[in-house]
Design brief:
It is built from four helices and five strands; from the N terminus they run βαβαβαβαβ. The chain is α/β, with parallel strands linked by helices.
C-alpha cells in the first residue's frame, strides 16, 4: 500500500467510514488515538502503526493487537517518507 491515513482519537470515526468504502491504505494512530482498541472490524486487515514512544507516554507500552505494528519514531519517519499521507488528526 502506498497510502497512509494518520488518525487521532477524534478522527477515528471519519477515517473508519472512508476506509470501509474500500480505500487501500494503512493507518497510523497518533496522540490519544493510540488508546483506540484496534480490531479487524475497525480497520479491516490493514496494518495499524503506532509509535512506541506514544504508547509509553499513554502508559500502555505493551498494547497488542493482530494488525498492530509498533515502531520507533525513527522507523515511522521512513514509513511516512515512502507513503502518500492523508492526515485526519
Amino acid at each position: 500500500m502506498d497510502a497512509l491515513y494518520i488518525v487521532s482519537r477524534e478522527s477515528v470515526v471519519e477515517a473508519m467510514r472512508i476506509l470501509k468504502s474500500g480505500v487501500e491504505a494503512d493507518v497510523l494512530l497518533v496522540g490519544r488515538g493510540v488508546i483506540v482498541p484496534v480490531t479487524e472490524n475497525m480497520f479491516g486487515k490493514r496494518k495499524v502503526y503506532v509509535m512506541k514512544e506514544e504508547l509509553e507516554a499513554m502508559g500502555i507500552p505493551d498494547k497488542k493487537c493482530d494488525n498492530l505494528v509498533v515502531v520507533s519514531s525513527e522507523e515511522m519517519i521512513d514509513i511516512i517518507a515512502e507513503r502518500r499521507i492523508y492526515n485526519f488528526s
